[in-house]
Amino acid sequence: MLVNKQVSSQSESQRKERKMKRKVMIASVAALLLVCGVTFSGLYAESENVKTSLSYGTYVDGYIQQCEGKTEMLNSGSLNIRKSAMQTKLKGDFIKSNRTALIDYLMEKDVPLNAARIEYHLTTKFTETLHPEGVYTVMLEKRVDQ
Prior knowledge:
5 helices
C-alpha cells in the first residue's frame, strides 16, 4: 500500500510537472508570435513608407524634368516667354535642391498620388519659400541685358 501511494504521488507530481511545462511552452510560443507579429507589422509599415516615398520621388523627378525642358526657351525672342522660362528654371532649381524635404512634406500632407495635386503643392512650397518678384526682376534684368 505504501508503495502504491509513493507511485501515485510520483505520477501526480509528474503530471503537475508536465502541465507546468505545457503552460510554459504555450506562453513561450504566444510571446514569440506576439514579438514576430509586431516586428513584421513594423517592417510592413516601413516598406509602405518606402514605396510611397519612391512614388512621390518619381512625380517630383518628372516635374523637375518638365521644368528643365521649359528652360530651353530662355533664348526666345519674346520677353514673356523668357520671363516664364526664368521662373520655371528657378522653380526647377528650388525643387531639385530641396527634393527630399519636399517629398517628406508631400508624405506628411498625405497628398494624393496625382501629378496635378503634387505640382500644386510643389508650386505652393516654392512661392512660400522665395520672394519671386525680387528674384525674377534681378534674373530677368540679367537675361534681358544679354
